[in-house]
Amino acid sequence: MDNRIEEIAAQIKSLEDELMVELRKKQDEFFYTLEDKKVRFQESVIEEGRTRIVSSIKYLSSFPVLAVFTIPFIWSMMIPALMVDIFVSIYQSVCFPIYKIPKVKRSDYVVIDRYNLFYLDRVEKINCLYCEYFNGVIGYTREVAARSEQFWCPIKHSKPQLDMHSRYDKFFDFGDYEAYRKELESRRSDFKDLEDRENT
What we know:
The structure is a single chain. Helix 6 packs parallel to helix 7. The radius of gyration is 21 Å and the shape is globular. It is mainly α and 200 residues long. Strand 1 and strand 2 form a beta hairpin. The relative contact order is 0.09. A two-stranded antiparallel sheet has the order 1-2.
């Protein structure tokens, strides 16, 4: 694999780690801690936040009437999301052990916590529950698909993609048939970075 591409991928990973450190600093700024994976806010912050809750009626009335009528269409999308969640989980449970691909930890992607924030009204909480579940399932599905693609067809596209998934830097360059035939078996099983991440 091209050394420059590996360097850039390492820089991206380093920046992602740096971003996580900065995001953790926000815990101090907004007066909360994580205890046993549960968020704990200072009581004074909770009391102050609750005084700023907007009523559900006021919240809904801030949108155009036509936007409110789209709610059934929005919620109907929960059915395919649930189906994808179930089928993708079954797929990786059955197939990944056979392919020797590390399983994707669903809880790393489907994070349900915003719906419980003390400064949101009921409608906002329901909206947050929907969005965090839906987007989590999409992220989880994308990672399962990325690992599957690395196993079955790890070849880059001929033109750059707007957003590349996490395994893309492991793929062969488009048209590099020599490397593809020579290194396919080693590339399709190259998940050492995931094992290293789990051990840190």
